Amino acid sequence: MGAPFLLVTGFGAFENVADNPSGRLAEVMDLRADAVGLRLPVTYGEVESLLDAALTGAARGTVGILALGVHRGGEFRLEERSGASDVSERPAAAGAPSPAGPRLALWSGFDLEACARACAQAGPHPVRLSQDAGGYVCDFLYGLALAKARALGVNALFLHV
What we know:
This protein has 161 residues and is of the alpha/beta class. It has a single domain (5-160), classed as 3-Layer(aba) Sandwich (Aminopeptidase). The protein has helices spanning 21-29, 44-55, 112-122, 137-152, and strands spanning 5-11, 35-40, 62-69, 76-79, 81-82, 106-107, 127-130, 155-160. The strands form two sheets. Strands 2-1-3-8-4-7 form a six-stranded mixed β-sheet, sandwiched between helices. Strands 5-6 form a two-stranded antiparallel ribbon. α2 (44-55) runs parallel beside α4. The radius of gyration is 15 Å and the shape is globular.
């Protein structure tokens, strides 16, 4: 088993977000020895295969998954769960339709109130807890990340910036 690492994902451009800060943050994290950063396209079809490929490093010591996304609000949002919303009818950035059917509701195992306090102390942005990661690719990724993290015996968290 290799050195422990945190998988950090963010997204690329979509709709009116030409420069997605979540993707930039993931790329910055990739420069660290204790993290693997991955900028994902905003497409349903590629998210799972790219996440799986990144997690093949599990034998190297994945310690957790931090998924990042962007939202329109002025605060950071720590997402408590996936699957709160039905799948959005709007296509992903590449024009592909969303997967059919309801999403599995999974909850993060982190103490999110403690995470929110730590985030609030670390920076100038307000932080709030959210029980709805949205019905778009962010929520889709969060459900995948939570399920795959549990299979690895680690945890996952989604943060909207």
